[in-house]
Amino acid sequence: MSDPPAPWPPTGATAAERQAAAGLGGSWQRLHPLSPFVRAGRGVIGIVILLLIPTSGGGGGTSSDLIHVGVIVVLFVLGFISWLVTRWRVQDGVLRVESGLIRRTSERFPLSRIQAIDTVRPGLARVFGLAELRIRLASGSGKAGRLAYLTNAEAETLRVRLLDMSHSSSAATQAAEATAATDAAEATASRPEQTLVTVPPGRLFASLLLTGSGLVLELAVVVLAVLAVVAPGVAAAAFSAGALVLIGLAFGLFRRFNGDYGLSVTDAADGLRLRSGLVETSAETIPRGRIQAIRMVEPLAWRLCGWCRLEVDVAGQKSRGRQDRNQARAGRALLPVGSREQAALLLASVFPGAPDERLVPPRRARWKSPLRFHYLSWGSNAHYAVATSGRIRRVTDWVPLAKVQSVRLLEGPVQRRLELSSVHLDTAGRKVHAVLRDRDRAEAQRLMQQLPERCREAR
Amino acid sequence: MVGLNERELSWNAPSPRLRVLRRYEVAAGTLGALILAVGIAIALEETAAAVAAVVVVILAGAIADVVAGRRVRAWGYAERDEDLMVRRGVMFRRMSVIPYGRMQYVEVTAGPFERTFGLATVQMHTAAAASDARIPGLPAAEAARLRGQLTSLGESHAMGL
Q1: For a pLDDT cut of 70, what percent of chain A falls above it?
Q2: Strands of A194-198's sheet in order across
Q3: Closest chain A residue by Cα to residue B104
Q4: What is the pLDDT of residues A199-250, one digit of tens each?
Q5: Contacts of residue A411 in chain B, CB cutoff 8 Å?
Q6: What are phi and psi of A319, to 5 degrees?
Q7: Which of A130, A161, A190 is where one domain is finished?
Q8: Where in the sequence is the domain holding B94, given as residue range(s)?
Q9: Residue A410: which of B3, B5, B92 has the nearest Cβ?
Q10: Are residues B85 and B61 in the same domain?
Q11: Would you call A407 and B92 a contact, using CB atoms and an 8 Å cutoff?
């Protein structure tokens, strides 16, 4: 508290670095003074516009003007207070963030548990040259530590230093983590960043138009256009009825476009680094050893173009936080859209030596899964298992055997009559699990005996 | 399903008191449905309907009791050297293998009815939400033993994510 806030605007990187260093040294630091304003983001802009509209209309008297000013002042003061009481510091290998005036919260993030640190810059933050640091731990609630917002230079310094500290402290404490840390340290010394994949915006746009919701939206627009020509009255009624749904669809598509725009995957020292974003940019690092599973999705329309989407799954159960909702639903795209070759390249980089050969289920499985049967297969080697399913939307899941948490066998009533069983390989990921569907019962029983042992050997 | 390396596995079953508990539960449900059905039939002054309802409800209760009994018998668990095996289900048969090293924590719960029967449910949690290792109806002493056993095995086999 005793430290005065850094001068604003910062005169150069030195001021930012000085502040970051002080925070790392254990003295309390505040966030950037504009943080509350940026965090409120669109909400504030909306409120301001709402407040200004009647006044600019000329109808409002002085009393309503006063109310508007009062509301703005109150919001301003609230924002200022929230900034004043939020502070952070690093001490004894623990990042502490305190916030709140009346309901005071103090969060502690042990650096040794850090999974990754992401840099996120929403549109408004970019205008002011600010960035948010998101510190991800492997906590069950999926809650991330947030430092919003810092200046760009400060954020970058802090990110690098925190990652360094997390590597050294984890190496000291945990033997299991030690290998990962030394790997990373080795790589830091030698390997330069190497770009694996970039996604051209044109292809991303085209691919979004070919997704399910994209096709629905296009169909609706075409129908509306035709209606507008044939029967304008009906078109207007239909539009007013379905406008909200259409806007929702369009907004969802735009959000995906915005999130995945200009995505580039680079092979960095500490893992895969993903950079993307149109209005809101984000840069996140996924440490190689933390990847629980990879899923390749190929919707019908994409298969015609030879496209696919690659998603990675990292540890953590379904997050309830608002900030991660988007990611939790869609899975983090390693490759929002790309060719098979690009997907194979990425896959080889993340899971080297993933199995190619596949085993198909017995013919009678067609009775249980008439549609799915076509692509149903699975394969495995000493380190990975892979399973394919889905007819219209083909889905392929890769799971490292070393990450399998439990093996389950399931046999439904229909399967029992056909002497079939499904074997599930559960991982700590949020959504991807390999399911070896509709295998012959004898094979499934054999797998139940062998797989736990093979998983143990893979570790 | 049952044939899985039967020769070396000794399956443990839940306590027979779980069967009794389930019978009481089914009986309570049947009684509730009976009162409701008869009440409605009397309110409508339909004697024939009342008799039919009583027969149907009692029949349904008997079937539910048989099903509950089969489900209790289907539960089983086996502690192997490296992992815990749990099997369950009649219609949908499931079997889980959970390595001790993957254990995050063990949960022992006992609801009011379970407690009156001296029973408890032991559940082993892993980092995967889908993992399914719940064993209901264990005698309290066995539940405590299993919890201690799993905890110590989990510690000695522990591994990261």
Answers
A1: 82
A2: A144-151, A130-137, A114-121, A281-286, A271-276, A264-268, A194-198
A3: A405
A4: 888 888 888 888 888 888 888 888 888 888 888 888 888 888 888 888 888 8
A5: 1, 92-94
A6: -85, 145
A7: A190
A8: 77-156
A9: B92
A10: no
A11: no
